[in-house]
Amino acid sequence: MSWRRRRSWTTSRRTRAACWCARGATAPSSVRTWTGSCGCCAAVRTTEELTGLLRGSAALTAKLSELTRRGTQAERAASERAREATAGAVELARQPSPGRRIAAETSALIDRAEQLNTLAQQHTDTAARAGAEASRAREILAAVQRASDRSRIALRMAGTSRAEQQQLIAQYAAQTDAADQAHQQALHAAQAAQREAWETISASPLANVIRGHDSDEHVPTAAVQIELLASMRTQLPAFEERINADRAEAVRRARAQVVELRASVETFRTDAARIKAEQELRRRIATEAPHQHQQEASARDGALQQQARQQVAAQRRQAGDLWGEPASPVMRPGPRTGR
């Protein structure tokens, strides 16, 4: 093979070796790009990777915002529960205890209701007396009215007169009206006292005792209310213990919720930190990838050129051995011509 043919063959081999994908081969590790593909496809894959990085960064930003929001809410809730737990513990430590204070307040309400029911009974007794007085006055008035219907002679024989009868009628009529009025006023006062006592009982923490008796249209009598108040008073010690136990349980639940919420806050923070690290990595890759690709492309070209030179030298040596030609041309002196 001539020198010119060998050079043309070497050039075509160099051209075919320029694209590793066209050869169906994998580039050597020294010329492989960061994407893991061959050199000629690195630019295309780099653009696709960067587009994916940008799209993924937007999703990470949305997720980071959601984690930050939920973390803030959990932290605010934990602070609120911590304040509730602290306030509850302080209240339990105070003397008298919450149960004792509420039981004392309930006892005062019971005392007030008993006073009102006593007052209602007094008004009821007053109404009864006024009603009896009105009944007597009404009977006398009827008798006087019957007597006044007799003749003048009969009235004179009875030691009275028609004018005197008229005065008696007016007197007993006034007494009847006054007694009736007093009766109605006493009844209204008794009903008002009973209603106020019932409302006082209903507003107490032990209102569940009167469940089944409560009615907007009917207020129990003073006797029934007094019986209910006696039942409420017997339940005050157990009521005090239950209140203290409920407050202690509320403090325990609040503290447990604080622990859970703070653990959630830490989880949210950890996830947010991981997402921030991922975002930073994506930004760094997006920034450094083009420069790294350029460096690797230059290294790839240099390696290809070096490989091509080595192949050319090897082919020259092989061609020289095959044709019996020296590896490099040697200048020999030509024949001398006569002068």
Give me the number of helical elements: 7
* Outline: rod-shaped
Q: Report how far the terminal alpha carbons are from each other.
A: 38 Å
Structural class: mainly alpha
Output mean pLDDT. 76
Largest sheet: none
State which percent range the strand residues make up. Answer: under 5%
- Computed CA radius of gyration, to the nearest angstrom: 57 Å
Number of strands: 0
Roughly what percent helix?
over 70%
Helices and strands, in N-to-C order?
A: HHHHHHH
Low-confidence stretches: 1-46
Protein described:
This protein has 339 residues and is an all-alpha fold. It has a domain at 98-247. Helices cover 79% and strands 0% of the residues. The protein has helices spanning 3-16, 39-93, 98-147, 152-157, 162-202, 222-234, 236-323. Helix 1 runs antiparallel to helix 7 (236-323), helix 2 runs antiparallel to helix 7 (236-323) and helix 3 (98-147) packs antiparallel against helix 5 (162-202). The longest helix is centred in the C-terminal third of the chain and has 88 residues, at 236-323. The chain is rod-shaped, with a radius of gyration of 57 Å. The two termini are 38 Å apart.
What's the gist of this structure?
The protein has 339 residues and is mainly alpha-helical. 79% of the residues lie in helices and 0% in strands.
What's the topology here?
Blueprint (H helix, E strand, L loop, with lengths): L2 H14 L22 H55 L4 H50 L4 H6 L4 H41 L19 H13 L1 H88 L16
Helix pairs in contact: 1-7, 2-7, 3-5, 3-6, 3-7
